[in-house]
Design a protein that fits this description.
Layout (H helix, E strand, L loop, with lengths): L1 E14 L2 E7 L12 E6 L9 E4 L2 E4 L5 E9 L3 H7 L6 E8 L12 E6 L4 H12 L8 E6 L8 H6 L4 E6 L6 E2 L3 H10 L4 E6 L1 H14 L3 E5 L14 E4 L6 E3 L6 E3 L3 E2 L1
Parallel strand pairs: 8-9, 8-12, 9-10, 10-11, 12-13
Antiparallel strand pairs: 1-2, 1-7, 2-6, 3-4, 3-7, 5-6, 13-16, 14-15, 14-17
Length: 267
C-alpha cells in the first residue's frame, strides 16, 4: 500500500455524468489485481476531507510493459466526484492504494459469466483483461451489462475490442436491450449453459439476486461490493458487511473485501 502525490494524465467525459480519469502511479502498481481499489482525494484541498474509493479500471502501461499509471471510471454523484470532474491534465491528486481483496482467477479456461450493473462495470474490464493475459479464452466469457437507461451502459465496445464475443445488455426503462434487470438474462443463460464461474459488481439489489441465483444453481460466484468507505484501511469500520457464518459477525469491505465469495456474506 502506498500513499502518493500523483498527477492527472487525462479526465475525459465518457457519457452523461460518467468520466474516465488516467493518473500516474508508482511502478509497483504492477502488483495491483482486478477488484482492488484506490482512495483518491484532490491534492491541496480539504473539501471534502475524506478520500473517495474507486475501483481500478485498468493499468496504463508503456510499450515496454512498465506500469505508468492507472485509470478509474467514475460517475458524478456528489461533492467529491464533482470536484474530480473539473480536474485537468497535470492537476494533483492524493492516491492511496492498491487496496482490498481482489477477484480470484481460474487455473484453467472455462465458461465464465461477468455481470455488471451501472458503474459496477469499472473493475470488470480490468478483470477481463487480466483473464486474457493469463491465457483464459475470453471468447467463451459472456458479459452482462445492465443500467437504468442507455446512458448507463458503459464499456461495451471495450469488451468486444479485447475478444469478448457476447455482451448482453438490459435497461430498466427499455431504452436499450431488454427492459428488465440484468439478472433476468443471466438466469436464462445459466439454464441454457451452466457456467463454471460468475463474477459480479453492481448495485446491492443486483448483487443480492445474482448471489441467490448462483446458490440456486450451484455456480461459484464472487461479488464486489459497492459501498462508501471513510478510510479504506479498516480504521473507521464504516463499511461493515454481515457474515453468513456466526450471528453478529461482520466483515469490512475495505480489508476483507471488496470482493467476497457470495456464500460468505449476507446482502
Amino acid at each position: 500500500m502506498n500513499q502518493e502525490y500523483v498527477r492527472v494524465l487525462w479526465n475525459k467525459i465518457e457519457c452523461s455524468g460518467y468520466y474516465r480519469m488516467g493518473m500516474t502511479c508508482p511502478p509497483d502498481y504492477e502488483r495491483a489485481r482486478p477488484g482492488q481499489f484506490v482512495m483518491v482525494r484532490v491534492a491541496e484541498r480539504m473539501d471534502p476531507m475524506l478520500r473517495r474509493p474507486f475501483s481500478i479500471h485498468r493499468l496504463i502501461t508503456s510499450d515496454a510493459g512498465t506500469v505508468e499509471g492507472i485509470e478509474i471510471l467514475y460517475k458524478v454523484v456528489g461533492t467529491g466526484t464533482a470536484h474530480l470532474s473539473t480536474l485537468k491534465e497535470g492537476d494533483g491528486l492524493n492516491l492511496l492504494g492498491p487496496l482490498g481483496r481482489h477477484f480470484s482467477l481460474p487455473e484453467r479456461s472455462g465458461h465464465i459469466f461477468i455481470v455488471c450493473g451501472g458503474i459496477g462495470v469499472a473493475p470488470m474490464y480490468f478483470l477481463t483483461e487480466t483473464l486474457k493475459k493469463k491465457g483464459i479464452d475470453i471468447s467463451r466469457c459472456v458479459v452482462f451489462i445492465g443500467g437504468r437507461s442507455k446512458d448507463d451502459l458503459l464499456c461495451m465496445n471495450d469488451f468486444f475490442s479485447i475478444g469478448v464475443q457476447t455482451v448482453t445488455i438490459t435497461t430498466d426503462d427499455g431504452t436499450a436491450g431488454g427492459k428488465e434487470m440484468v439478472t433476468g438474462p443471466l438466469e436464462r443463460a445459466i439454464l441454457a449453459q451452466r457456467p463454471d464461474m460468475i463474477y459480479a459488481c453492481g448495485p446491492l439489489a443486483m448483487l443480492r439476486t445474482t448471489s441467490r441465483i448462483s446458490r440456486q444453481y450451484g455456480v461459484s460466484c464472487e461479488i464486489s461490493i459497492e459501498t462508501m468507505m471513510g478510510c479504506g484501511i479498516g480504521a473507521c469500520l464504516g463499511c461493515a458487511v454481515e457474515s453468513s457464518g456466526d450471528s453478529g459477525t461482520y466483515f469490512h469491505a475495505c480489508i476483507d473485501g471488496p470482493v467476497f465469495n457470495a456464500l460468505d456474506i449476507i446482502i
